[in-house]
Amino acid sequence: MNGRPLAWCAFLLVVLCIYVWMRRLSPRFAWVFAVGFVTRAALGLALFYISLRRLPIMRSLQLGGGFWTLALDGRSYFELASRAAATTLTIINDDLPSPTYVRVLAVWLRAFGATPLSAILFNLACYLAFTVLVLIASRRENGRNAAAPTLTLASLIACPSLLLFGTQPLKDTLCVLLITSLTCGFALWTVAMAYLPINWTGVGGGMLLMALAVYGTAGIRPYFAVFMIVATVAAMIWSKGFFPVRHRWWAAGADVALVVVLWLAFMTGGGPYYRVYTGYARNIMFRDMSPIVPFDTARASFIASGGATSLEMRLDAREFSPGLNAVSFPERRPGFVGRLSATVRGCAAMVVPISVLRALSIVTFSGGRGLLLVTDIDTIVMDLTAICCIVWLTTMGRWRTAYDPTLVLIVLLAAMTGIAMAYVVTNFGTLFRLRLLVFAPLWLIPALASRFDARAETLVPADAVPKRQ
175: closest CA among 90, 121, 100? Predict the structure, then answer.
């Protein structure tokens, strides 16, 4: 199946139209978008050509055919999606890794051609959708554009790992888009519910964005979909304390409907993982299972698999051999001190350059294949962008909006994911990719800062229900 010239031309025309629209709203934002788009496209084409022609550039990292070792699973995703694009999507069953991503990629390849360049184009489409959502969510209620959220877009562009993953058929760019969909959808939902008469267009749009985010994530990284639902419910409960009493019951009823929709999205998108997680929930609620057991089980699986970049300083094959887990052998689960130590070490690996931790003998491993310098640069950039986003919130009077439910959603989502990941994931190579799930929500703070200001006078206790102007 060859490329589709007409489809590619149509995509470029859509990009041009969106760029013109962005220019009218915010020239600065449009310029940052263009830089990110061109950089991603140029790097993707360069890496594809180098690997395809086997040029003498980083040969040890080349897989040939346009693929690289940083995307070993990306090649399998592409091959399966290509077969599905040429035949039928039914060959992608729910038991395969990330079935939702593979199905979406297969549909894309069917439209644009089964070539690795089409996978690069798909990541560019995710980047395009991300910028559109960010710009829409950053606009004020009165329709005027707020200060352009260039810091959010700049953080996305500056992240080396996301830039590299975007040149391969990997799911990371789509995951960042799904996080954006959830957060922006919740922001639209909260604004729509803050006034009377209720803006049902905003309610429907916000619900749709959140449902799509949970559905897509459930079929890619189902554990993160659970965190999405938990953070959303907690943020909704938090927001009810700032609604006027007469409006609170209407909002609570709508929130119940939203939770049902999100749960159905997780049920349909999660496939077999839905049964696994509901089984854990039943055991925790009705059989006195400790909530930490699922995390101990997942961590034991990581330790048993080992790996060249394992963060564990001592691996006891007798204690963590293949097939053993924390449920079957509860006496082998670590105690509080052990869990705390593992979590602190994992957090350090997430935010401190790994070379520094190795030099201090905090972690020891032998792998890396020359990519440790890249991971160190990526860590530093992620730290700086996250700090800038937090500083953005605490300056210029934005600290007064700390009660905003969207900010609560962002903080809870990042905190839950970060702590769970720090404890469970013992392989630095895996942690290097997964930590995007922690930092991506923080990058959205500047994009939603204008919405915080717009809602500052509505989501507070009041005697009267605020009216839409």
Answer: 100
What is the distance between the alpha carbons of residues 251 and 190, in angstroms, rounded to a whole number? Answer: 9
CA distance 101 to 105: 6
Amino acid at residue number 428:
F
Segment (H or E) for 67: strand 67-68
Which of 108, 101, 75 shows the shortest CA–CA distance to 222? 101
Q: Domain locations in the chain?
A: 5-287+367-455
The pLDDT of residue 142 is above 50: no
Give the pLDDT confidence of 207-216 residue by residue, as tens digits: 999 999 999 9
Place of tokens 């994931």: 425
Q: 26 with 139: CB under 8 angstroms?
A: no
C-beta of residue 324 within 8 angstroms of C-beta of residue 300: yes
> What whole-number distance in Å separates Cα of residue 436 and Cα of residue 418?
10
Distance between CA 242 and CA 221 in Å, rounded?
33
The residue to which tokens 């903080």 are assigned: 411
Task: Scan for tokens 């009041």, then name that residue.
Answer: 462
Mean pLDDT of the chain: 82
Residue with tokens 């055919």: 65
In angstroms, rounded to a whole number, what is the distance separating the alpha carbons of residues 459 and 243? 6
User: Do residues 413 and 227 touch, judged by C-beta distance below 8 A?
Assistant: yes
